[in-house]
Amino acid sequence: MDIIEISKKIIEEGPICDHCLGRQFAKLSTGLSNRERGQAIKLTLALEGDRLKRDEAEDSLLQTLAPCSVFARKALRLKGEDEQCWLCLDLFKKLDSLAEAAIHALEGLEYSTFLVGTKVSGLLSENEEVLWAEAGTAYAEQLKTEINREVGKRIAEKVGKEVAFENPDILITLELAKEELKLQLRSVYIYGRYRKLLRGIPQTRWPCRKCRGKGCESCNFTGKQYPESVDENIKEPVIEAFEAEDTAFHGAGREDIDALMLGTGRPFVVEAKAPKKRDFDLALLTKQINEKAAGKVEVRDLKFVSKGVIEKLKSSKADKAYKLKVTFKEPVSEEKLKSCLEALSGAEISQQTPQRVLHRRADLLRKRLVHNMELEELTEAGYAYITVKCAGGLYVKELVSGDTGRTEPSLSGLLGMPATVEELDVINVDIEI
Question: Under CATH, which architecture does the 319-430 domain have?
């Protein structure tokens, strides 16, 4: 079917604007807007109508082109009032106002790129499907595609920012049925390392176990199991710096609540959600966080990263190093202790999920490697300081205690008596981003 025949079928459905007529042939030719295509098609129909009129076939043409737009009507010297486009309901007359509404909503926000998206109403979608079924065109593009492009062009011209189809700083969504406009601000991601200098602080926010975050007498109506976390000590300065709605914390593993995180610190990414600002002096942010959390948490090496770094953090099996304070049920000689630590160095450890975390971990058998265990000091008081270097995912407390046989081999098993980790400090997490 040729373009003229398809066009005649299209205009038989009712009055149609230049944009909507031209959009049915958007995949043909380049360098033209849909509006220009529509105008050209209507001009062609008008010229054809004039030719048929001269051939005394005007009545036949008028019957075919009766629902045509004002442009074709005038070209055929027909009288009649302007009629609404039945396909888009004259939506294209509102492009400037849609763009202005978006520009107003963008005021005060810091961004370099944006993208426009459109949610059309059920009626507009149905109109388009009806037309495609009746006319049989194979060259059309969707209504929302043209709306996105045309509104995006107008915004870009006014604000001097670029349209980005991948990872725009701001996604502008036009919800036509509700006559609403929504902004989705892409998160800012900041990588760094944190050191936890005080025991009793979890890595992330824990809702109260009794009320599940609603607030009760048990949690003093805070909704939290613990008063603060590493996450919360970092959160407030980040929210203030980027004028964000909230943050999300993504750590490369986690240490126990009673453990310190020392050495070079644990890698993390803090996500600033819905930020009004996208740039900030990270040296100043480091200072602000460290002053606020002095004596509890400190951060270093902050830098902007992409969202993909989070997945890398979560999937990395980083080697780790720990310093343990271990006590024994009975006195142990330095020679015997060193012998047992040497036996564990280089050993593959079989660990059933520890009993202490069974309530939140699947009961699985894991195999992890101990790279090295070394005695730093055996004190007169009977406790030992031991360093452990091992693969990520090894439960170090159970490597010492044996967890009633769920971890094999273990220091307790080799010594032939119970040994317990009294204090645990993480001194290195071997990940580089």
Answer: 2-Layer Sandwich (3.30)
